[in-house]
Design goal:
Elements: H1 3-22, H2 29-52, H3 64-74, H4 86-89, H5 91-103, E1 114-118, E2 130-134, H6 135-147, H7 152-168
Antiparallel strand pairs: 1-2
Protein name: Protein PBDC1
GO cellular component, one term: cytoplasm
InterPro entries: PBDC1-like_dom_sf (IPR023139), PBDC1_metazoa/fungi (IPR008476), Polysacc_synth_dom (IPR021148)
Length: 169
């Protein structure tokens, strides 16, 4: 299964789990764990994708151009290389992000679903390097990282490791 199909499958499963959570009186802990696992799987597939394909050529949604333009219009100086979680998570940060996120309510499916986002774009998903963000925040930051070349370091490091492994064989 190619990475794009994996992402679509994970999105489908995540949507199904979200519906179960929304329609149960008491969200069973097992469902919450399954939903968290799906978020992690999505993150893993995305990291594998930017490790395998030059990120500057990736298109994450059909609205990438609009998301990127609006993000840079609303957040022109936002540091995407190393995120400050307070700018996303604090009450003031949430207030600033709310109009941006709501702008995409009808344009990006599941725009407000929870997704894992790397703080430092040069590092993998780890407990220390990951925060929970909305899907539209993930798209905004990662599309900008891809277009502005910040995710190229992940791809280049992966390419170099593959070349070294091949040379040793």
């Amino acid at each position: 299964m190619d990475p794009y199909d994996q992402i679509r499958l994970i999105d489908y499963i995540t949507n199904a789990l979200q519906l179960l959570l929304e329609h149960s009186d008491e969200a069973p802990a097992q469902l919450e764990v399954m939903w968290a696992m799906k978020a992690y799987n999505h993150a893993e597939v995305y990291f594998n994708l930017i490790s395998s394909v030059d990120p500057k050529y990736l298109k994450l949604t059909k609205n990438d151009d609009m998301i990127y333009s609006k993000f840079r219009e609303d957040f022109p100086d936002f540091n995407i290389k190393i995120l400050d979680s307070e700018l996303l998570k604090s009450a003031e940060g949430k207030e600033k992000w709310r109009p941006f996120c709501n702008h995409f309510e009808t344009l990006v499916e599941d725009f407000n679903y929870g997704t894992l986002l790397r703080l430092d774009c040069e590092k993998d998903y780890t407990e220390e390097n990951t925060i929970f963000a909305t899907r539209i925040q993930f798209f905004a930051v990662e599309i900008a990282r891809n277009r502005e070349g910040y995710n190229s370091g992940v791809y280049n490091a992966s390419l170099k490791a593959k070349q070294q492994k091949k040379a040793q064989s």
